[in-house]
Amino acid sequence: MFMNGSKSSMVTFAIAVLALTACSKKESASTDTTAASSTVSADTSAMTTGAPAAGTWTDANIVALLDEVNAGDSTAGAVAATKGTAAAVRDFGKRMMRDHHQLRAQGEALAKKLNVTPSAPSDDPVTPAGQKEMETLNSTAKGKDFDRAYIDAEVDMHKAVLDLATKAASQTQTAELKNLIQKAAPVIQGHLDKAESIQKTLK
Fold it and tell me: Is the CA virtual torsion 119, 170, 76, 39 positive or negative?
């Protein structure tokens, strides 16, 4: 399932994200939609620049970041499931909620088995990015603008997480955690692929 190069590492870590945790005035002008999307993009890119150098995250740090990412994605999915206009957008939101719930159960069981207590790193870039995404979704009126803002945010967020993954995927030396990541890989890749597919239909 894994691809060659850094993209493989990014997908691998993003899967850990899903596997360990949650499952997180109308504007009609195109410039307003772009503004909403770029706001989320700017903040998710901060996840990349804010990621620490290799070797600085413990398993507890990684588990905490994974929990934050997935809790946020699940919450955003819940909003999209009710606020989305396009059926594909609502269905995608429901899929995020469902898949993350199933993966979270697996992740929580492993964390308990390994006796790992989540502890976010001091330079945690995930929380602010997730908060900004929710602010954007909550402030964008239901309709095409919301659909685009949500899907654009999901694509950007997944890419940011994948990029963050290249800096953290190799940091765990726990075999069971690595195995869980491999098993979850097809799920996260499927989420990104689907989001990008929907994105093309909303342009």
Answer: positive
Average pLDDT, the chain: 74
Q: Does the predicted model carry a pTM greater than 0.90? A: no
Specify the pLDDT at position 12: 40
Across 105-132, b (16+ Cβ under 10 Å) vs e yields ebbbebbeeeebebeebeebbbbebbeb
Q: Is 80 exposed, middle or buried (0-12, 13-18, 19+ CB in 10 A)?
A: buried
The answer to whether 145 touches 89, Cβ cutoff 8 Å, is: no
Segment 98-104 mean pLDDT: 80
CA-nearest of 77, 88, 81 to 18 is 77
| CA distances in angstroms from 202 to 27, 33, 175, listed in the order given | 16, 12, 41
Distance of CA 9 to the CA centre of its chain: 15
Most confident of 26-30, 122-126, 138-142, 182-186: 138-142
Both tokens of 179, joined, read 């195995």
How far CA 146 is from CA of 46, 86, 159, 173, in Å, comes to 23, 10, 20, 41
In whole angstroms, how far apart are CA 138 and each of 44, 76, 79, 83, 95?
17, 9, 8, 9, 20
Place of tokens 């953290």: 168
| Nearest Cα residue to 121 out of 180, 21, 170, 50 | 50
Nearest in space to 12 (alpha carbons), one of 199, 196, 177:
177
